[in-house]
Amino acid sequence: MKIQTIVALCKNKEGKLIDGCSCGTCRQVISEFSTAETRVIYQFNNKIVIKPFKNLLPDAFTKKSLEADR
Ligand SMILES: [Zn+2]
């Protein structure tokens, strides 16, 4: 089973939501448990954004990368 939706929220010291999303390392881990179409929800420019995961980590290193002919 793959993850269908991920919500990535960032708070400041006072607990107020601020802009932010997962870092590159987290995106790599997420890629191993999600699909290209997994929805990622986060705040950017003070607005809630919903994007397919493939837009956050295009050309991700996946299991397929290990199977490719080199
Ligand atoms: Zn991270």
Task: Give an account of the 3D structure.
- The chain is an alpha+beta fold and 70 residues long.
- It has one domain: 3-Layer(aba) Sandwich (Cytidine Deaminase, domain 2), CATH 3.40.140.
- The protein is built from three helices and five strands, in the order βββαββαα.
- It has helices at residues 24-31, 53-56, 63-67; strands at residues 3-8, 10-11, 17-18, 34-44, 47-52.
- The longest helix has 8 residues, at 24-31.
- The protein is elongated and about 50 Å long.
- The mean pLDDT is 91.
- The site of zinc ion has 4 residues, from helix 1.
What distinguishing features does this structure have?
70 residues, single chain, alpha+beta, Cytidine Deaminase, domain 2, binds zinc ion, two-stranded antiparallel sheet, 5 strands
CATH fold field value: Cytidine Deaminase, domain 2
Which band does the percent of strand residues land in? 35-45%
Give the helix proportion (percent range).
10-25%
Number of strands: 5
Poorly predicted regions are: none
Assigned CATH class = Alpha Beta
What name goes with the CATH superfamily?
Cytidine Deaminase, domain 2
Q: What is the count of helical runs?
A: 3
Present as ligands are:
zinc ion
CATH architecture: 3-Layer(aba) Sandwich
**Elements, N to C (H/E):** EEEHEEHH
Mean pLDDT: 91
Largest beta sheet: what is the strand line-up? 1-4-5
Distance between the termini: 29 Å
Structural class call reads alpha+beta
